[in-house]
Design goal:
- By secondary structure, the chain is α+β, with helices and mostly antiparallel strands.
- It has one domain: Nuclear Transport Factor 2, Chain: A (Roll).
- About 30% of the residues lie in helices and about 50% in strands.
- Strands 2-1-6-5-4-3 form a six-stranded mixed beta sheet.
- The chain is globular and about 40 Å long.
Length: about 120
């Protein structure tokens, strides 16, 4: 298992959570590749960083906050990518992350290429 890849993914995931928990939708979106895809059940599919930022901004505006991952798992796919899966909870919803595909960038950080999760209230 690539320790540097795993560390980059863990740091990126924690950065996304901090952005969300401080109400920073643009920060959340900055954790995604420009042409990333997000499938958020039951909300829909969002293509590209701009659409993803709009989704997070709307959710934050509606008062969703305090996201916490529960028992996250990191599965290394290859030398440049890993998948995070986890249960999660926040102030007024909970659910499951089935696939966050994080990809190592040339600068050594990881960004989300695919994000698949389900929310239940």
């Amino acid at each position: 298992m690539s320790t540097s890849l795993e560390n980059a993914v863990r740091e990126a995931s924690e950065r996304w959570q901090r952005f969300f928990n401080t109400g920073n939708a643009a920060g959340c979106a900055s954790c995604y590749e420009e042409d990333a895809s997000m499938v958020a059940l039951p909300f829909g599919t969002f293509e590209g960083r701009s659409a993803i930022e709009s989704f997070w901004a709307d959710l934050i505006e509606k008062g969703f906050a305090e996201v916490e991952y529960i028992e996250p798992r990191i599965e290394v796919v290859d030398s440049e990518s890993a998948i995070v899966s986890s249960r999660w909870k926040m102030n007024n919803a909970h659910g499951v992350i089935t696939k966050e595909l994080w990809v190592l960038q040339p600068n050594g950080t990881a960004l989300l290429r695919e994000d698949h999760f389900e929310a239940t209230s």
